[in-house]
Structures are given as C-alpha cells and as structure tokens.
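Quick look at the format.
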Amino acid sequence: MPISLHTFPSLARVPGLLHGVTDRRGGVSAAPYDSLNLGLHVGDDPRCVLENRRRACDAAGIDPERLVVAEQVHRGNVATVTARDAGRGALDHSAAVAEADALVTADRHLPLMALSADCPLVIIVDPERSVLGLVHSGWRSTAAGIAGAAISAMAALGGRPDHMLAAISPCVGKCCYEVQDDFIDIAVHSAIVKADTYLDRRGARTFFDLPGAVRGQLCEAGVPRRNIEASGVCTACSTDRFFSNRVDGTTGRLAALAMLL
C-alpha cells in the first residue's frame, strides 16, 4: 500500500514549506507496530523503523538521514536547532535532541520530525519570517505550556505570533479521552488557561478536549484563531488508520514532518 501523507490546506498554501502527517499504512513493521511505525523507542525492529522512515521521507521529499527528532519526555522544553543538528535522532533514538518536546528553527532544508500515538503534534510556521516549529503537545507538555513556549522561541528567531499559522495533527479527541481526578487536579492548576472549559462531564465520567486546549494555548500566545487548523480526526476512534496507545497499548508511532525550503 502506498504511503499517504495527510496535509493541511492552510499550510499547503505556504510557499517553501514541506509538511505532512503519516498514518499507520504502507510500512514493513509487524504487529503490534503494523505497519508504518516511525518510532525507534517502542520496541520495534530498528531495521523496519529505518525502512519506514525512508519510505515516509521519500513521500515527503526529504532526506531521512537529516531528520531532527526530539527525545519527547512529556515536558515543556523547547530546543532551537540549526543545520549543525541535522541527523540527531534520525538513525538512533539515543542521539535525539535531549529533554525536548518541541523543536524550532529558522534554517532551511532542515527536516523536523515529531512522533505520536494519541498526543497532538503541532506544526507552526511564520510564512513571512521563515521560522518553523514542531511541537509534541501531550497532556503533560500542554500542562507545562509548551505551545506558548514554542511560540516564544520562534519569536526569538524573528517570528511574529500574529503572522503564524498552526496545524494540529490527528490525536485523541474529547470523544475518547477519559480522565481521572488526578489529571483534573493537575490540569486546573497548570498552564492550561480555563482548563475546566475543556472538561466534558458525562455522569460519573469526565473527558478532556486536549486538541481544544492546545488551540487555546496557541491563541493565548498570540496566534489568531482563524490561523489554527485542526485535523479533527480522533486517533482512538480510527485505529485502522492511526496508532493509538490509549486503545492498543504497545503500538507504533505516526509522525509529523516539516521543513523549510
């Protein structure tokens, strides 16, 4: 099966930007990582993962050996990367950019990759200033305010939040993201402004709108709401197309890819 890269209309109109989000189809990994697993850190055969990365990067038009990947430790840290970082995490997860969950750059021809199996991945670009960000915004990183931190890091490179466009990948939706009291307590005392507005109580059960919270943080950081596009696809509802750790437990990772030309 050929690889499908899911793109966002708003980002597709940006000259000099390559981007895409993979699904789980078109790779060589065996179950439970079937088949286009792009994560080197989940127990899959590394040879399969590297072949999958080659295929995904070929579809995107980028060099897989120049990928820059964050370690993704579910915190709020942002790393600014340059051409000197090309290849970090591309072939070996231990070489990924340490302690970071978001990468920003103003360098061209430097492909960024982020991985997920339910967490929102956010591609952010300032088309006028040619500044790019890629954020892994799981709930802990969202609670730490990572979207705003990434916008600030992009501003330090010359970007203007009011000029930025952002796109939120397929991720677990409010329909499926059930949370417990400990999560609720952390969320309402976190960097998520008005966190209670993202809670959906259904009798004794509570669900959380994680992509909605990410959108809210982008707006708080100055990105116009009209400039934020979300896929609207829930990974937990669509395990035939996407990896979901919440549903499947041990599973693969999809990726968001982005590069300035």
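Next, a different chain entirely:
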Amino acid sequence: MPPDRAGRRAGRPLVLVAHGSRDARAARSTHALARAVGAARPDARVATAFLDFEAPGLAAALSREAAHGHRAATVVPLLLTAAYHGRVDVPGVIGQAGGLGLDIGLAPVLGPVAGARADAVALDLLVRALHRRLDEAAVGTADVDGVVLAAAGTSHVDALATVDLVADAVGAALGVPCVAGYASGAGRDTGAAVSVLRDRGAERIAVAAYFLAPGLLYDRAVNGALAAGALLAAAPLSDAPEVAELVLRRADAA
C-alpha cells in the first residue's frame, strides 16, 4: 500500500454499525468483532454503533468522532446483504451527518454483491468463516451430507440471490448440497430447506449460520431447522478472524 494511503488509513476511525437487537448477546458479539478488528489492525481506532435498540446510534457515534477532533471516518455496515438497512438506513444517516465536518466514507456491506467480480475475496472469506464455525460445532466434512445455510431473510429478492451465492460456495467447498433457509422474509424457511435436502437424499444435515450475531432471528432459523430434523447448528460468525479481515478489506475499499 502506498505510504500516503497507509497514513490516511491509520488516522481514519472505523465505525462498525450493526443492526442492533433487544437480545443482549447481539451487542456482545458486535463488540467482540470490533475487538478482533482492532487486534488485526492495531493502528486503527475502531468504534461500534447500532441502527436500533442499542446505543450509540450511528449519528451519535459519528458526532463522537467529530468531537474527538477527527476529520474523517469510515463506516462499515455489519450487514450480510444489501437489503433495506444497507441501501437506505445507513446512507440516510450518513447523509444527515453532513454538518459534522467529517469526511465520511461508506464501505460496502460484508456479504457479496451478485455479479461483482471483486467480491470473490469476500465470498471466500465468508465460506472459510462458515466452515470454521461448522468445525467448531464438531462437524467435519465427512460427517454431514447436507447443509442448510440459515440466514435472517429479507423481502428484497436481489439480496436473497446473494445468499444463494454463499450457499452454492459453501456446498462446493464441503462437497455436499447446501440450501439457503430463512427466519423471515420472502425465501423458504429453514424447515423447508431441510425438506429440500431430504428430498435430495441427505440424511445427516447440519446448519451453517449466516448471521453475524445471535438473537431472535438466529434462534428462529436454527430452531426451525433442528425441529425439521437437522442434527446440529453452528454458532454465528461473530468475531471469526476471516470476518475481521473482511471488515478491514471493506473499509479499505470505501
């Protein structure tokens, strides 16, 4: 990296903005990821913000950076799809922060964007993180013959297509069929995803969690798959080192 860019990066705070949840586990997971990002880049100031339920909100977090004397900041949405929150909520708050005197860069969401060639790296990092969590759940590639990729869900069809990209990549990496299932929104639920895999001959089905943090939707997605016959479920991605690396790559691309 050229020295001038490295210098700008070192002095530019990273504000990681998560959706937020009433479930206290979600904020703890977000803070754990922020610590992992800070450990991976010790010269960076890493702050957290939330769109709902938790404080500080994104506007307050940006105001805090301005009050600390920073002239620029990079916002990294901790979102796995470019659905409503990524397309509308986060840019809207940044647009309203124009009077702070901050040069605010907005990074892409963490999940891949359909058709974006540069997102091959993001896809690889996410698949590796999902594989890591499955291994931690005591699931080796030889132990399962089908995987449900459990996700939060959205009514935005293009965003659902990017989850299918991840499911296909997980299946290719593990050598077993992988089908996306959702806790809400327009896609099939996780119980139906288990049924699809059963119809394809799978008997030992595991759940990979395409979630950054635990919460109501994670619990709903996992419980639906387990009730339909899945054997076990992986934890959310949280502070997996691959996710921390992806956050930094997205920040650098802002």
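The chain has two domains: 3-112+240-253, 117-233.

See the schema section for token definitions.
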